Amino acid sequence: MEFCYTLGKITNADMGVAVRLARIATAFIVTAALLLPVRVCLAASAQDNLQNRATRKPYSPSRIEKGLESPQREQWQQPDRVVAALGLQPGDVVADVGAGSGYFSFRLAKTVGSGGKVYAVDIQDEMLAYIRAKMQKTGITNIVPVKSTPIDPMLPPGCCNSILLVNTYHELGDPVALMKNLRKALKPGGIIAIVNWNESVTRKKLYVPMDLLVEQMKLAGFRPSKSHDFLERQYFLVFSQLN
Ligand SMILES: C[S@@+](CC[C@H](N)C(=O)[O-])C[C@H]1O[C@@H](n2cnc3c(N)ncnc32)[C@H](O)[C@@H]1O
Question: How far is the CA of 216 from the centre of ligand 1 (A)?
Answer without folding.
Answer: 18
